[in-house]
Model the fold of this input.
Amino acid sequence: MMVASALLALVIGAVLVGLLLAIATLRDATEAEGRSKDVSIAAVNLEKTVLDIETAVRGYVVNGDSFFLIPYRRSRAELPQRITTFQELTQHNPAQRARVKALVSRIHTYLSVYTEPIIDIFKDDPRSARSSIAQREGRRYVEGIREHFRQISAAEDEISARSAQTASERADLAIGLGALGLILSGGFVLLFGVYLSRSIARPVRDVATGASRLAGGDLKVRLVEGGPGEIGNLTRSFNSMAERLQHGRTELEEQNQLLRASERAKSELVSIVSHEVRTPLASVLGFTSLLLNRDTDPETSRRYLEIIDAQGRRLSALLDDFLDVQRLEEGRLELNSERVDMALLLREQVELFEAQSDLHALELRVTESPLAVRGDSNRLAQVVGNLLSNAIKYSPEGGVVHVRGERSNASVRVVVEDEGLGIPDAQQERIFTKFYRGDAATSGIAGSGLGLAFARAVVEAHGGRIGFTSAPGRGSIFYLELPTAA
Ligand code: ADP
Done:
């Protein structure tokens, strides 16, 4: 903007200087013309005075009347003043000054050599004075003087014409320059306006539009960066501000989601506690009250006590599961690192669960050779137990549960496949989340929603991974992979 303003000022300045020059030239020309006119007038006056002298002298000599000496003397008296004026006016021009000097000397010569002597001669000898020789001599002098006047006039005319010509040329040039300057400065103002509008007004308008969209909640709005100086800074700052706002909002949304998830987990925990704790607790309280308030035979008392014991253990196991998951997640659960044969572990677990249900058949396929991994055998047994227990629990109609143990690359792979309910697509993402039970909670299948969360934490702590595929209504396949022991 500074450069553009400076250029504009320069163009306007040049135009003004051009116009001032034109005015000055015109004034000089006018002055020169006036001076030439003054010179011409002074020349005419001087010439007239000389001619008056000549006429008076001739009148005096021809007529012999001393009356003619009156205009002669008057003109002679005027002559010095006229000569001085004429000299002053032609002072500035050396060529004219030289011509005037010659003229003046010629006039003086005419006066001293002709007019004064002829008057004197006339007094003594009128005939000689009137002689044609004397008259011719007089005319010759006057003619010479007039010739000088003609030369001076011609030279003055030429000077005047030359200065008029120069003035007209300069004026034309100045007018041309002025017009060019006006066109240039007009164009420049136009360009400057376009530049201002493109590089300042438009980006500022974009920023204003962007700001109102931002205020309206559209945090994705971004401006085209660039533009001169502060405009460039403005667009860049706007974009980084929008970026930070969007980032802040994303963070807030994520935190919000986490908060909601934790809120959900809390309410699920409350429902688990109220359901899973209340049922065994009700049994414990009910049978304790029976034992206290009624007389029961030892057989019945023993049965009641066994129920109380089983329900108490269930409660304790629930608490243990919860605390284990909590500790695992916080990295506080200590895991043994021993050599574990997963083939053996699978055989033991399948045997343990086989007796649990008459509806289900457990089919184990496992290699004869050991499937050695390194880890905590009790926790790994818990994990496999959870998978088997789920396969049975979530196949209420019964069916075959296939269990496989195999080597896969550098891993030991365990697969538990059931023909049960399967897991709806919408729930699949969340089943490893603590306390999440999907439809199980409402369908009356007992559980805490902790088994898979625990399993995943244990498997990952062993450097392995756990996953599943499931077809709702047709069954699920859960698998885990653990690194083979060296
Ligand atoms: P729970 O104590 O409810 O069984 P888990 O953590 O073991 O808790 O499992 C979480 C949820 O995943 C279950 O409530 C159930 O909805 C679903 N699930 C787990 N295993 C299976 C399976 N084999 N078939 C169908 N659903 C399953």
User: Anything to note?
Assistant: The mean pLDDT is 89. The CA atoms of residues 356 and 392 lie 9 Å apart. Residues 386, 390-391, 394, 418, 420-423, 431, 437-438, 440, 447-453, 476 surround adenosine-5'-diphosphate (CB under 6 Å).
